[in-house]
Amino acid sequence: MLSKQIKINHLSFQYQNHKIFNDLNLTVNQGEFILLTGNSGSGKSTLLKIIAELEPKFSGKIIAGSLTQPFSNWGMIFQDPNRQFTMATPREELIFTLENKLVDRSTALKRIDYASKKTHIQDLLDRPLTELSGGEKQRVALSVLIAMESDLLLLDEPFANCDSNNRKFLLDSLSLLHQEGKTILISDHDFSGYKELNPIVIEIKDQNFIVTSLPSTLPKIETHFSLPDKKQQNNLSYTFNSFSLSFPNKGLITSTNLELYSGAATLLTGENGSGKTSLFKALTKVIPYHGHLFFREKDVKKWRKRPYLAKVGQIFQNPDDQFLNVTVEEELNFSLKYNQNPLLNRSKLTSLLSKLKLDNLDKQVIYSLSGGQKRKLQILVMLMAYPEVLLLDEPFSGLDQKSVSDVIFLLKNYFLNTEHTLIVISHQLNQIDKLCDYHLILKDHKLFYTK
Amino acid sequence: MNPGLKLFLILTISFEISLIPNLTTNLIIISICLIYLLFKSISLKKILLLLIIPLFAATVVFITIYYFTPNHNLYHATILFTRIYAYVFLGAVFTETTSILSLARSLEQNFKLPSKFAYGTLAAFNVIPKIHTEVNRIRLVGDMRHYHLSFYSPTLYFKAILAAISWSNSLAEGMISHGYQEDKPRSVIVPVALTKKDWLIFSSILLLLQPILLLTK
Amino acid sequence: MKKLHLRDIILIALIAIIFGFIYLASDGLYNALTALLTPIGYGMLANDIMMGIWCMAGPLTGFLVQIPGAAFLGEFLGSCVELLAGEQWGAVNLLSGAVQGLGSELGFTFTSYRKYNWFTLFLSATTTTIVTYMYDFIKNGYSYFSTFNMILYFVVRWLSMLLFTCVLVKLIVDLLEKAHVIQTNQN
Lengths: 451, 217, 187
Hints:
Largest sheet of chain B: none
Mean pLDDT of chain B: 93
Radius of gyration of chain B: 22 Å
Strand content of chain B: under 5%
Number of domains of chain B: 2
Number of strands of chain B: 0
Number of helices of chain B: 10
Keywords (chain C): Membrane, Transmembrane, Transmembrane helix
Shape of chain B: flat
InterPro entries (chain C): ABC_thiamin-permease_prd (IPR017195)
Organism (chain C): Lactobacillus taiwanensis
Number of strands of chain C: 0
Radius of gyration of chain C: 16 Å
Helix content of chain C: over 70%
Structural class of chain C: mainly alpha
Helix content of chain B: over 70%
Mean pLDDT of chain C: 89
Oligomer: heterotrimer
Number of domains of chain C: 1
Protein name (chain C): ABC transporter permease
Largest sheet of chain C: none
Low-confidence stretches of chain B: none
Order of helices and strands of chain B: HHHHHHHHHH
Pfam families (chain C): ABC_cobalt (PF09819)
């Protein structure tokens, strides 16, 4: 049997005005296992979509070079597990997929049986997909590719919403599929668990590839935090009293008593899927909780939504969510119009913009900026809204080290003081102890301070 | 009964009673639907709800037509009142006895609806809870930035449409990556039957309806 | 002529769904208006006052996805989703959805799917008014009204359409154009 090859020849690709790839060359042989790494925004998703021929579409285009991709029965798993299913339940999705592949009924039933056993989703087959956890959904997504008998598997940051058990299970399953001879390309920013798979590691950097290898020891960033001293702290922002949280149907936090202090920045860590973002949702009155949660000595349930949200703001994971206007100029003018921050005004803002290299962007459509530019603007915009509590959900993703220190500078100089509170969810721990005073960890359904 | 054919039947009847004002027909339709729903052992609570939900709209129409039109015609007012009930009961007969998925499959298999319509709509339908969250987040961000977005605010719609564009891209990519190809044949794993009996029920109900509509008042 | 692809259909359905959510927010206003106007005999006028809000999805999708049938689907798929959601009004809403969709679509048909500007929206608002009014004339008993009221209901509905499906839709479309997300017929 002739072995198949994916060939990328001198490919240059641009998205809107940004060049993503410049003169890219890559050959993938059948049966290889490739791990793509690189900063967020470096083009990992784009590369996988180009190979799947999902790109170029409306805003992206190939400006030079070519792609040869002989695998017609490819399948893909996406980063956001919510956005890849057509049907309401795993069984219906499997049926839909196999109908697309012109599989007849009796073969289909066998394949569904096989694929659901392989991915341990037999009990989930008839449950609504909207009720499954991120990890469970990705197992369903893998079962679909197994049922399709795809020979090329493309996985784009598939573990971003998986807990460690599901991550390990899925990696083991991929290992088995690799042994069966499947070609696998996966993008991930986390190297753990790949060693046994012996992957070819390709880093995307500066619009091109570097072939590297897995780091022999995973870099460990040492962080040291102090524990809050109850006697010294009298400014409470939140008090948790027998607080518990479940979402959607999964218990995330059980009966917690805790105090959060104003005038401090607190780092919140925990595994993927442990419930950090859900905790933010409870803090912003998006989802309900059990027990008591007091903000400024009044139960959050009793706060009316609008006055509460004027005091509790959030930096969302996806910067696009934060914006309400079209161009950079409009967005900033809007913020200035509703500015509450005494430390910021038009002239101050202008000097900050040039410091952050965000000047001369006035007429640009905000949604077409680079990830880093969007992130910095997003933070500026929320600094001007100036809530008492600011929740930050992965504020450093997609930023280089210089930008990380810029962001920390902004938060320390234009936000943090005795009346203000920061709570930061972050995977990225470089420089984090320059910002955060305390460290909260969410582990085994418990939320507690740690060093 | 075949879901697609059932839908056409319900639609045809609804359409006919919209065009032809006829009290007897409305009452007969309501009674038959009610008996059918009871026969299908729909809970009494649900049936009670079916009686309450349209009451507001139906009463408003009745009051307006009976008290505030030149003829003060009780007969016309009653027709419009019962018509609204007939719609709701006809609708309930359909929704209470048919699954969405079987309707989509029936329209695709029995009535040659292009699969992109059937599954495109279904894909959108199945992410409604997520889309709802997304729209709520836009409002949330507005409040966090001290600007309340209400239903007449262009910004709210603008942001919502941007979200819809992004979701439609992702969902289409999701379908393609699960082997879907527009205008290509698909196999049938869960067949939906369209039998002679279905056609017989369909045509006899419609045949029976016509004389009632035309000959009674 | 270009035709609707999978992505367009999903987009149109999603927009129909999203508009559905936003309309729900205006439900309170509708009920209040109806309750307020019923004692003076104009309860049914609330329907005409709100009509423009309920018909925004059509012209918007017609403008956003510049392909024949898009405006119709924007309205019609909205009613399909209500049916799928198991609403009791579902079946009859499918008819209203088709009528509203037809009204919206006609405005674009009359400009041969070439012009996409104020005039197109004005035309679409007007055709929607005429078509939906004719349907309500028969279905909702407008034919029993006095001549004065017949005209009044028509004018109110038209104004509502102009305000929402023409002015508000144009404001939204301007934002979308500025953000470069409208697919035009030219490319």
